[in-house]
Structures are given as structure tokens and as C-alpha cells.
Amino acid sequence: MPELPEVETTRRGLEPHLVNQRIMTVIVRNPRLRWPIPSQLAAELPGQRIHTVQRRGKYLLLDCDKGSLILHLGMSGSLRVIDAATPPEKHDHFDLLLEGGAAMRLRDPRRFGAVLWAKGDVLAHPLLASLGVEPLTEDFSGNWFYTQTRTRSAPIKQVLMDSHLVVGVGNIYANEALFRATINPKTAANRIGLERCTKLVEAVQTTLQLSISAGGSSLRDFVDSNGNPGYFQQQYWVYGRTGLTCKQCGAAISQIKQGQRSTFYCPRCQAR
DNA sequence: CGCCAGGCCTGCACGC
DNA sequence: TGCGTGCAGGCCTGGC
Fold it and tell me: Could you give the residue numbers annotated as active site of A?
């Protein structure tokens, strides 16, 4: 389940293998992702050079000569750089063959991911244009978050996961950050004061940073890696720990549903 | 067999 | 009226 740290780790792993590489061939084995992979890619991409590998939210952006390739991993997607001769497996839907014999291969069993092509300003693409602030920049501050949430009466967890406000905070890290900030996930966002907003913003940043740092250790093995950099090393405070004891206070971790998503929290540490 | 997990878009209903 | 907001549905497969 790639969240921002996994996407950023993937970006860092891809970057040295892709930048300044020329695309030789595009292989689409199954175009049926969240949206169809554009059929013109196979004709349009070969010959183009990749200039940068960037990230916006959970989208990876490969800036090429004549446009940008937009990649999203959905919830089960992974990207690897492998030898182009490696036989594809069942859910390997998309390859970019590079000069020199390497390939970037997308695997996505559940096909919630996306491969799209944007000409011109990629950030103006409909999927990217209305995204919120990047959580690891100064734009995401306690003051800003406090101001933004005054009109939001929804539970703080759902507001935190609104990608039109702040990007990259998925279910796992929303739960973890709220624990760190000792805020109850059900609290209405506009009932959280400036001080606690600041605490929450810092908790989000700490949670994401720590996770990126953990994922970084697998970067060296990105080529031929399992394609899930960092993901298996996670240590969670609350996520997936229903009924287990809180690592902070020993109370039993609760699980509830919010907006059709599972929420985990410590009823004692996160009382309000 | 049924249910659940996950990201996030789309479409719809609601209130100011 | 129009907009912001919040809710629900849908897309998929693997694992229990």
C-alpha cells in the first residue's frame, strides 16, 4: 500500500537509473489500469529521453522530451528497474525498455494504479492541478492547517486524508500521526486549536520522515529488489494493532470505521 | 464461499 | 444559484 514515503523511496530508487536515459520500447501487456494506458504511448515514447523523476503527492512524474509520464501506484503497484530480458510475471502490466538493456517494470495486481501522458505543464493536468500542499514543505505549517480547518466539521482523520488539502497522507500514516499528536481521530477538525494543529502537522512530518528514512536503506538494492522498498520494515504505534496493548500506555487499541476506512487509535492516549 | 484491505476519482445530496 | 463540503460507490485481486 504505497503511501508518500513508499512513493518517495521508489522515486529515489528510480532516479539514478532513469535520468538521461533514452526510452527504446514501450510494452503494454494489460492497459486496463484505473484508466486505460494511452494507446499512443507505444508510438510516441520511443526515442524520447527522460530528464527528471519527480514526485507530486503520490504521483511520480517522468519528465520527457515531449511531455511527462504520470505514474501512480494505486494500492498494490510497484516499480522496479530490472534486466529487460527478465521474464514478466502475472501482474507485470507495463515496461519501459531503456537503452543499455534495463527496463522499468510496473507490477500492479489490483490495477488501481495509473500510467498517463501529459503534454505541456504536467502540474496543470486535471489529476494534479487541485492537489493540496506537500506535507514535507514549509507550506504545510501549523498556522496554515489551523486556518484551513476552521470551516471543516468532519472528523480530523478524514480531513487529514483529503488530498485536496494536503497530499500523501493515507490511511496508515493518518492513524500513526494522530497517535503521535495524541489527537482522537473522531474530533471535528474545526474544534482543534492552533497549538494542537501545530502538534499534528509536526507529527505528520515526523511520521513521514521516519518512514522515508527507513525505506532509504533498501535503495541500494532497488534493481532486482522486491519492489516494495521499505514497506516491510514498518513499526506501527496503532495501525493494524486492534486489541493489542498501546506501546505508550498499555490500553487496548480500538478499531472503528470512518468514511469506510479503518481507524485505529488508543482510547487513553487519544482521549480527545 | 464471502469479506476485507487500500487510493482516490466520480457523482450525488446537502446547507449556507 | 453556486460553491464548499461530506458521503457513498466503484474499480480490482489476494489472503483469510
Answer: 2-3, 58, 261
> Domains of chain A, with CATH numbers?
4-124 (3.20.190.10), 142-265 (1.10.8.50)
**For residue range A173-208, what is the model confidence (pLDDT) as tens digits?**
899 999 999 999 999 998 999 999 999 999 999 998
pTM: 0.92
CA closest to B9 C1', residue:
A127
Q: Please, is A142 exposed, middle or buried when counting C-beta atoms within 10 Å of its C-beta (0-12, 13-18, 19+)?
A: middle
> Is strand B within 7 Å of residue A216 (CB)?
no
Above 80 in pLDDT, residue A2? no
